[in-house]
Here is the input.
Amino acid sequence: MIKLTKLNNEEFYINPYQIEKIECHPDTTITMMNGHVYVVKESIEEVKKKVVELNKEIFGK
Here is the structure.
């Protein structure tokens, strides 16, 4: 799970393996495979970095 921040400063965790797409218009909008949509403060690059860090932690790569 990765920790993200909603626009109201509420922190939450999502499963990055359920992300369908990430868009920026202008806020970062994450659409999950189940159709739920989250708007977060982090940039697309920050979200990608968190996913890469999680994969390194899990898979050691």
Q: What stands out?
A: The chain has one domain: 2-59.
